[in-house]
Design brief:
homodimer, mainly alpha, two-stranded antiparallel sheet, globular
Chain lengths: 255, 255
């Protein structure tokens, strides 16, 4: 079993060597810029799930890459003036500051389409279908975020953050050919990850759940989500130790 | 064989009844707005190709719908202030004028993801792969358009317009299970359609090819592209009469 750090390295090497569509020409530069510097947590969850389910993590690299491309697409578009209007991302100028709004808009579009190209390198449609559904749910969450007023925060994050985390597990199940009858506990695990990640992020940033409920209550929410995620892992008859490490290290970040 | 008008009706009925992803909520309204009012020429080419290749056009409706969704996505994003900054589209306010820039941006994203969802309802990955490749080529053309300076106009349109027209034929070939060894003349036909459509459009609008080369030379280009398209159709051992009608009616529009 490869440790999370090794899976991050695997992801970075894969993304570094990833050949983008030649016809994109110089557009590729803005896409690689937008893709650089992430924590790769979605990719790591996908790779670790695939290995726990019995296949080499390398087999899941196109799926993991697709998840990171969808995540990068969502950040590039979210940062645009029409949405969050953020000038900085991952400690650097946002894509639209670095390349202009038009190129950044197209970079996001191209990242999304490339993500499908990667998910479509598998022999069945299942990974790409899961990616499409998750992306649509995520966009539904972004819509709630900009229009929602007093939307239920849990529903918003279940869509905006949770759907792609859940798909990080889901894509790995398809890649590893896990029979659908056995998806239950794996997917229950995946469902908790988005909530866990979001609460942890909010505690670290002092916003969202932490601002609304206070840091102590938010930390308690994170421990509970982590507990449910680990309980789901215990129902899986496989070595899920790396996934457990990922959950625990997320919970610990808030402590 | 169904005539082009009947295929337009089939497409409109399909799009009217198309269920979008429920989690998109009220975002669906902007998507349907952006999708309304097109000429459906890409869908009609897809449906007519499928019928010529031996399957009921209804079988190709999800593919035809996916092409129209990708086209609508590209128009919504193209119209945004960051790109062409067009306030009108199809005789109505552009999506970002009607719904605001943020919602229009997300509407485009969601149309693209829904297009993949539709293309992924087929049993193999081939239609969705063709759609992804065409979309990426199209985005490459959009990038050339905004950054290109004195780019070769033919190369720009081959990507920006041509790739999706070529895919209108290509998706139908996959849907109809035409063996790859027989794709040649069909794809040669598809390759001409984008050029033909673009030149015709420019003659009618008095820009692009017509502005650069003069209306007479542009009309001659349209006749030549139409001639090459029909020559490709003659190499196909099937009833391609409806496709020929589509080509001829495009050429006639410039006369």
């Amino acid at each position: 079993m490869q440790a999370p750090d090794a899976l991050v390295d695997l992801t970075e090497q894969y993304l570094d060597r990833l050949e983008l569509t030649p016809e994109l020409g110089a557009q590729q530069e803005s896409m690689r810029y937008a893709l650089a510097g992430g924590k790769r947590i979605r990719a790591v969850i996908c790779l670790a799930t695939a290995e726990a389910a019995g296949v080499a993590p390398e087999r899941a690299l196109p799926a993991a890459g697709a998840l990171e491309l969808v995540h990068a697409f969502s950040l590039v578009h979210d940062d645009l003036p029409a949405l969050d209007n953020d000038d900085e991302r991952r400690g650097r100028p946002s894509a639209h500051i670095a390349f202009g709004e038009g190129v950044a808009l197209l970079a996001g579009d191209a990242l999304l389409a490339e993500a499908f190209r990667l998910a479509l390198t598998y022999p069945t449609t299942a990974p790409a279908r899961e990616l499409a559904d998750a992306t649509l749910g995520m966009i539904g969450g972004q819509f709630l975020d900009i229009t929602g007023g007093d939307t239920d925060l849990a529903q918003l994050h279940r869509l905006k953050t949770g759907r792609l985390f859940a798909a990080s597990v889901g894509l790995a199940l398809w890649v590893a050919d896990v029979p659908e009858a056995e998806h239950g506990p794996w997917r229950a695990f995946g469902e908790e990850l988005g909530m866990l990640f979001q609460v942890v992020d909010d505690v670290l940033d002092g916003d969202g759940y932490a601002a609304r409920l206070g840091a102590d209550v938010a930390r308690q929410l994170a421990r509970e989500a982590g507990g449910r995620a680990n309980a789901a892992l215990e129902r899986i008859e496989a070595d899920t130790s790396v996934l457990r490490t990922i959950v625990d290290s997320l919970v610990i970040r808030t402590a």
